[in-house]
Amino acid sequence: MNDAGRVAVVSGSVGAGHDGAARELVREFAAAGYATSRHDFLAMLGPRGGRALRAAYAAQLRVAPGSWGWLLGNLSRHPGLTTGLAGFIARVAARRLRAALDPQPAAVVSTYPLASQALGYLRRRGELNVPVITYLTDLSVHRLWVAPGVDRHLALHEVAAAQARALGAARVEVVRPVVRPDFATAAPARLPVRGPVALVVAGSWGVGEVAAAAAEIAATGLATPVTVCGHNAELRRRIAGAGTGLALGWVDDMPALVRAANVVVQNAGGLTSLEAMSAGVPVLSYRCLPGHGTTNAAALDEAGLASWVRHPADLAGALKVALADGPPAAVRALFAAGTPVGAVS
User: In angstroms, rounded to a whole number, what is the distance separating the alpha carbons of residues 83 and 143?
Assistant: First the structure.
């Protein structure tokens, strides 16, 4: 049976970026007239498997972030490792994923690499008879993102598209990034700080060299750091205890907060970077996480969308430029170019 009027979106509840992209895809497809359903790939690994994967990834980023960069590097250099890991995950998830997609929709869109691998596996085996589309959420593309059996790949920029093609991705198309519309329209939040605001973001888990970044921004005297610590209560206590600007926990109204900033300083290069760009706020990449953090920083820099500040000695100069010049012209082009996702046929 086929549900021809429905698009299914499969995400992964690790951090908030993949889910955030999935929510916006659902909104865009609904606006285009499709019924939609949304699924968490981690649920397809069973109650213990999904929790274990999420906890292991979070612990890896908190305790040994360099190991994540090492893993991605090895997957890139040794395709056989990717094939083995992806095949194991796909087999574990296959039965639950197949059941979740019954009746089969008109198409399935993935915002999470392991979901793409499992969907491609079902497609190759003839157990999924509708197109599978991977929405590449970041500007850099690592090998896990590109799965045999996936029919097409939607990239946010030609830099990402070129990386996907180099890895053998099928039918790569550049589309307009999906971002909550209120990032472009919300009234700025009122913050209890004076002067320019540097909003420091590090994902929903608040991982990386965040406290050091905030302290170094404060030391320039050019802006007050307002740090979003997400669910990392210990990080918030540490920054607040040091008196480094303003430390916030989980923030529900991110559009208002982002629009109150004069510059956003980030370390992972995911959805928050795109949200800041949509809000018209310049973005800097600084003290980036190993792995996807550094590859995203490099891709954003190559695309002319956000400068990558590689050394603390360069921070003050980069802040001066961002505060004086605002977003680069390439940011405006990013949201003007490309096909709207809801119009992809």
Answer: 10
Predicted TM-score (pTM) of this structure: 0.91
Q: What domains, with CATH codes, occur in the chain?
A: 2-174 (3.40.50), 182-334 (3.40.50.2000)
Task: Dump pLDDT digits (tens) for 131-159.
Answer: 999 999 999 998 999 999 999 999 999 99
Q: Going by C-beta distance under 8 Å and a sequence separation of 6 or more, which residues neighbour residue 23?
A: 38
